[in-house]
Structures are given as C-alpha cells and as structure tokens.
Amino acid sequence: MIINYLIDKIEASREDNIPAETQVGISNNITVIDVELDEKFKVLKFKFKFDAVFSGNDQELGKIVIQGFVVYTGGDIDKIYKTWGDSKKIDPSIAEEILQASLNVSILEAMSISKMIQLPSILPLPKVSTNAPNDAGEDSHKKGSKK
C-alpha cells in the first residue's frame, strides 16, 4: 500500500519561438531508478523518474523531468527489496501499484508545469460538443426538417 510520496526534483524547459501551427507530439516515460529499505519504519522508498518530451518539426520543443519517490508498506518488504537487489526489477506483486502511483503523482505536476511554460497538456482534455444527436438521431439544436 502506498502511504506517501515526495517530489524532490523538477526540471522544465521550452524552446523559444515555436510556430503556432506546429503539431506537437508528446512522449512520456516512468521508471523506477532505485529502491531503499527503511528498517526503522518498515517501508520501502521507490525512487522514480518521469520524463515528458515535447517534439515537433523533427526537433525537441520542450521537456519536463520529475523525480521523487513513493513510500510503500505491506506485504513482505524484505522479499520485495531482495528482488530489487538481485535483478533491479520491481517484484511483480506490487509493480503495477508502484508504477501507477508514481505516474499519477508525476502527471498531475507535469500538467501544471506544462501550462506554466506554455506547452500543450500532456493528457488530452475532454472536448465539448454542442451538436449531440437526440433520440431520433437528429442534431439537438436543429428544429423541424427540410424535405
């Protein structure tokens, strides 16, 4: 179970003079880079790194890097820590939980940062449509019919 998290490093950059018509592609990645065992509190600290790279016109337009850790307790933390020490892989029983928590923390911060440095949102935002079809399959804002 994840009981805490902390972001301890943020880097963000943006190229100057990005033309307005530039189609921006975004790729992101989350990686666990280290695991520490805190025997006093019987927890594991999973250190992660999140990268979001913005590109367009065959060049890098910006980048956001976030590092931090999530704190995990529960299960057999000694076995989980040994698995990391032996293979540098997260124990499969908790891998999804650790990666998802790290990604959630990072994406929330990266969305705010991307707005501050005027890069597109790293997640697509919902779109509103005012032309939703009604029960009869017609546009809801059209009245009557043409024949």
In the predicted model, the low-confidence regions spanning at least 5 consecutive residues are none
- Approximately how much beta-strand content do the residues carry? 35-45%
Give the biggest beta sheet: 4 strands, antiparallel
N→C terminal distance: 63 Å
Shape: elongated
So how many helices? 2
Would you tell me the structural class of the helices and strands?
alpha+beta
Please give the order of strands in the largest beta sheet.
1-4-3-2
What oligomeric assembly is this protein in? single chain
Counted beta strands: 4
**Which H/E pattern describes the elements?**
EEEEHH
**Rg:** 22 Å
- Domains (count): 1
Query: Percent helix among the residues?
Result: 10-25%
Average pLDDT, to the nearest integer?
Answer: 89
Describe the structure.
With 147 residues, the chain is an alpha+beta fold. Helices cover 22% and strands 37% of the residues. The chain has helices spanning 77-87, 95-116, and strands at 2-14, 25-38, 43-56, 59-72. It is elongated. The model has no long low-confidence stretch (mean pLDDT 89).
